[in-house]
From TrEMBL:
Its cofactor is Ca(2+). One of its GO terms (molecular function) is phospholipid scramblase activity. GO terms for cellular component: plasma membrane. The lineage of its organism: Eukaryota, Metazoa, Chordata, Craniata, Vertebrata. May mediate accelerated ATP-independent bidirectional transbilayer migration of phospholipids upon binding calcium ions that results in a loss of phospholipid asymmetry in the plasma membrane. InterPro entries: Scramblase. Keywords: Calcium, Lipoprotein, Palmitate. This is Phospholipid scramblase. Pfam families: Scramblase. Signal peptide: none annotated. It comes from Calypte anna (Anna's hummingbird).
Length: 221
């Protein structure tokens, strides 16, 4: 474990990660989008990290859900251990040359990997890459991300897309929560022996999926 990025040692033991978006009262009452805040927990519900989105009011309210952002993830001592950067890019299959790409750093300033959107006319598809931009895993979403009162699963697959080794799930959390507070609960399931750097990239992928497909208040119902 002495070779792991500082702060990621705990991910070495996890095969399930829960991401809970905190309720923003101002957003619920006024409909004004505020900076997202998340608690990242283990399967027992114990907080491992805390994440805060950084951008300006213009991005949040006019560019959402394609807004650029920096998400800073800190451990329980307040030390920043992961930084997630998303530039402003297109969110349409009509522009296959300028699709989403997200960079994950751990520790901050050192590349851990990337999440790259792949063009597909029917399903959401992403590639997880390591720090050298070598392909590691695929993420393939459903044909529709409207769960209709059920969870929505994005499968984590091997590069040949033949085997499923995990998933990123958007948990359905009820009508009131989805419509009025727009908060989200996600679960990440991956092999326990997956490189912790790739686990950190998977957390970044979860944030990207949240903003791309579940930012609007009626999504996930």
């Amino acid at each position: 474990t002495h070779n792991l990025p500082p702060g990621l040692e705990y991910l070495n033991q996890l095969d399930q990660i829960i991401i809970h978006q905190q309720v923003e009262l101002l957003e619920a009452i006024l409909g004004t989008k505020t900076s997202s805040k998340y608690e990242i927990k283990n399967h027992l519900g114990q907080r491992v990290y805390f994440a805060v989105e950084e951008n300006d009011c213009f991005d949040r309210n006019l560019c959402s859900p394609i807004r650029s952002f920096t998400i800073r993830i800190a451990d329980n001592t307040g030390r920043e251990v992961i930084t997630v950067n998303r530039p402003l890019r297109c969110n349409s299959c009509c522009f296959p040359c300028f699709l989403q790409e997200l960079e994950v750093q751990s520790p901050p300033g050192t590349i851990a990997g990337y999440v790259v959107q792949n063009w597909d006319p029917f399903r959401p598809k992403f590639t997880i890459q390591n720090e050298s931009k070598e392909d590691v895993l695929k993420i393939i979403g459903p044909y529709t991300t409207c769960g209709c009162f059920e969870d929505v699963d994005f499968e984590v697959k091997t590069l040949n897309e033949m085997s499923t080794i995990g998933k990123i799930s958007k948990y359905w959390s009820g009508f009131v929560n989805n419509v009025f507070t727009n908060t989200a609960n996600f679960g990440i399931e991956v092999p326990v022996d997956l490189d912790v750097r790739i686990k950190a990239v998977m957390i970044g992928a979860c944030f990207l999926i949240d903003l791309m497909f579940f930012e609007n208040s009626l999504d996930g119902l």
